[in-house]
Write a structure and sequence with these properties.
single chain, alpha/beta, Rossmann fold, Cobalt-precorrin-4 Transmethylase, domain 1, Methyltransferase, Cobalt-precorrin-4 Transmethylase, Domain 2, 3 domains, 5-stranded parallel β-sheet, 9 helices, 14 strands
Length: 328
């Protein structure tokens, strides 16, 4: 359900938030609204939105102080089920979170969906474009909070497809860049379910760009490397040669690496990286709450910590961080 808000940057108070409150909030902020949710019992999803500064939670908000007051229109999922012949799965990369960075093909897939299985870091406002009958299932992982296992997600999309539904698996960034899309593809193929992929704008390049950082720049670097920082250097589960990266001369883009930044920086410098190499950490790229800090590789972890940078965040390390002057 599409909500139209009046004016520029209106203040909106949402009452009676339901399990799909994230969709409501994203639909409002996509139109420039400043959103407050009236509740004394915030769900993990709502707490996550508040931690990312996308919404304010207020149990005593005065409705008279807001431009618009509304009841969460998605407080109940009244989606009707339908059956269509020839069920299938489409893995749609939703980009970094900005509705404008969702591809045309991805939007078309949403408009034809019977079921949308969605992560939390997609442009949730785009779900307004799904058919009225479409069922929306949230499976996004909240850091150190609720999550749906990958096995359960695989089972979910296959079950719906076998029931004849057109299933869109809506994922942040690009499905095949640390999105576990390959696992979902393999599960569909093994189950005999037709599957296709619609690439998305990867946060690995889009988020640095939105912060004014090109991952390559002539005369500075001849390439870039994208790695996950989910497993810190020295962890026996890790396979990244951090010390080699430290002397590679390539731009380093680290996804999911906020917690391990101190160990990552130490390994890079130990491998030969200049301690004065510029670095930036960008939180919530593409969202109204986006912010960043810039430092050196040896100080970026402290700078991010002092600024209160939290996931989702992208870290860029290399001379490209300071390559461009700020636009006038």
């Amino acid at each position: 359900m599409r909500i139209t808000v009046p004016g520029t940057a209106p203040t909106v108070l949402v009452r009676e938030p339901g399990p799909r409150i994230a969709e409501t909030v994203h639909g409002l902020i996509d139109q420039g609204a400043v959103v407050t949710v009236l509740t004394a019992d915030a769900s993990p999803t709502l707490l996550d939105l508040a931690a990312r500064r996308l919404v304010v939670i207020d149990g005593d908000a005065d409705p008279a102080a807001y431009d618009l007051v509304l009841r969460d229109p998605l407080s109940a999922n009244d989606a009707r089920t339908t059956t269509s012949p020839g069920g299938s799965v489409v893995l749609v990369g939703g980009g970094p979170g900005d509705l404008g960075l969702l591809t045309v093909a991805g939007l078309d897939a949403l408009r034809g969906a019977d079921v949308v299985v969605t992560d939390r870091l997609v442009p949730l406002g785009a779900l307004d474009e799904a058919p009225e009958h479409a069922e929306v299932v949230h499976v996004g992982k909240i850091p150190r909070g609720a999550f749906t296992s990958q096995e359960a997600i695989n089972h979910l999309i296959i079950t719906h497809a076998r029931a004849g539904k057109r299933v869109v698996r809506f994922k942040g960034g690009d499905s095949f860049v640390f999105g576990r899309g390959g696992e979902e593809w393999a599960a569909c193929v093994e189950a005999g379910v037709p599957v296709q992929v619609i690439p998305g704008v990867s946060s690995a390049v889009a988020v640095p760009a939105l912060a004014g950082i090109p991952v390559t720049h002539r005369s500075l670097t001849q390439g870039f490397v994208v790695v996950t920082g989910h497993v810190a250097p020295g962890d026996p589960r890790g396979t990244v040669d951090w010390e080699w990266l430290g002397r590679s001369g390539l731009t380093l883009v680290v996804l999911m690496g906020v917690a391990a930044l101190p160990q990552i920086a130490a390994a890079l410098v130990h491998g030969g990286m200049d301690p004065k190499t510029p670095a930036a950490c960008i939180e919530d790229g593409g969202m109204p709450s986006m912010r960043s800090v810039t430092a050196t590789v040896t100080t970026i972890a402290d700078a991010a910590d002092q600024a209160g940078i939290h996931p989702p965040a992208v870290t860029v390390i290399g001379d490209v961080v300071t390559a461009l002057k700020e636009s006038p």
